[in-house]
Amino acid sequence: MFAQSDVLLTGQMVFALTAVLGLASLGLKLFGRKPRETQFVSQTEFHETRRDLARELETLRARLDHNFDRLLEKLDEHKTEILTSNQSRDRALHDRLTELQSQIARLDERTK
After folding, report:
1. What is the pLDDT of residue 1?
2. Which residues contact 41 (CB under 8 A, 6 or more apart)?
3. pLDDT tens digits for 80-92?
4. DSSP states along 16-85
5. What is the pLDDT of residue 11?
6. Tens digit of each residue's pLDDT (9 = 90 or more) over 34-61
7. Which of 2, 48, 53, 67 shows the smallest number of beta carbons within 10 Å?
8. How far apart are the C-alpha atoms of 77 and 80, rounded to whole Å?
9. Cα dist. 51→25, 48, 58 in Å?
């Protein structure tokens, strides 16, 4: 019988401690923490910051466009250089083949 009362006392203690801790946490939530005064940005500061950011983005966009245009011009220059060099190589190769054909034709006439 004594063991049964110990269990009952322990259960009551656990229940009481849980209730006290719950009330303490609720009290801390309600009264313990005061919300800080939030410092909002005024409309003028917001619009100034927004204008500054828009200006910076516009300058960045302009720089990127300029660099992109320069890159395209360089690519066009390299493309024309490559095409020109390929055409000169083609001409040289065609001339050599024509010369070889004429030499083979002369050699073929000699052997007949």
Report:
1. 46
2. 49
3. 999 999 999 999 9
4. HHHHHHHHHHHHIIIII-PPP---PPPHHHHHHHHHHHHHHHHHHHHHHHHHHHHHHHHHHHHHHHHHHH
5. 75
6. 666 667 888 899 999 999 999 999 999 9
7. 2
8. 5
9. 46, 5, 10
